[in-house]
Amino acid sequence: MVSKLKSEEYAIEHSKKVHSGLLKVIAIYIVLFFFINLYYDDYMQAYATIMALPFTILSYYLLKIDKYYLSKLINYIQLNLIITALCLITGMDSLIFMYFFPLIIGALVMFQGKEKTTGYILVFTTILVMVVLTYLNLHLDPMHNDYAHLQSDKLMNSIGVGVFCLVELIYFIKYSNETHDKLVLNTEQLELKNNQLLSVIYTRDKMMSVLSHDLRSPIIALNSAMNVFSEQAIDPSLQKEIVGQIKNKSGRLLVLIDDLLNWTKSQSAAIDV
């Protein structure tokens, strides 16, 4: 149970680190593409791109205040909307739609566990949007009807998607390795505790075997003495001798019980569960 909880904790930590890193990359991409589009006088595409920046900052803020699920959801939806808007502005021929692919991969990685259903719904929605955009194939900005401009858009988008996918892969590998190392260390610690537990169980069984004999003998003697006192009158001198023996055996029994309690406490402290 402990191992499962730690594994889930590491998986969430891994996902948060990837999400945080990708948000920073997305912010850089947004600013970079904004200025590149301004340079090519592609104002409609530039302004559509920069609209994603406030929502990316909001997603990063939500992540920092531990609103992780909301942060992922807002970031995915806003990127989906921005890419859709860019596809409508530039047309599918500009290859801007390829940004949907790293978005889909990110959703499948980021939404895990109980959130998998959300991830699948978002991916299905994205694929549906791509199908509709392909069917419409609009060019709202006449600038993109120009062949030379369209070719530069294709080149820029192909490079952009390739670099983004590479960065995404680097983040996945980097934090996956960190999570793997933590899981290996956790497994080694659990194995060590398991060996300690097996050792304690073995020692306990041996102790119980010895104690069952050492506790039984004085208790039988005490029970016999009580029977003598209750069933017949005995000589005072003999009675005094028997009481002395009872006192001696009860003292030994008390010491034995104290030793048993101390041993139990030491064994409990030795294993940090």
Number of helices: 8
Order of helices and strands: HHHHHHHH
Q: How would you state the average pLDDT, rounded?
A: 78
Round the Cα radius of gyration to an integer and report it. 37 Å
Q: How many β strands by DSSP?
A: 0
User: How big a fraction of the residues is strand?
Assistant: under 5%
Helical content (DSSP H or I, runs of 4+): over 70%
What structural class do the secondary elements suggest?
mainly alpha
Kindly, what is the distance between the CA atoms of the first and last residues, rounded to a whole number of angstroms?
A: 11 Å
Low-confidence stretches: none
General shape: rod-shaped
Strand count, sense and barrel status of the largest sheet are:
none
Brief overview:
With 273 residues, the chain is mostly helical.
Describe the structure.
The protein has 273 residues and is an all-alpha fold. It contains eight helices and no strands. The protein has helices at residues 2-39, 43-50, 52-64, 68-90, 100-110, 116-136, 147-231, 236-270. Helix 3 (52-64) packs antiparallel against helix 4 (68-90). The radius of gyration is 37 Å and the shape is rod-shaped.
Notable traits:
single chain, 273 residues, mainly alpha, 0% strand
Question: What is the fold's blueprint, element by element?
Answer:
Elements (H helix, E strand, L loop, with lengths): L1 H38 L3 H8 L1 H13 L3 H23 L9 H11 L5 H21 L10 H85 L4 H35 L3
Helix pairs in contact: 1-2, 1-3, 1-7, 2-4, 3-4, 4-5, 4-6, 5-6, 7-8
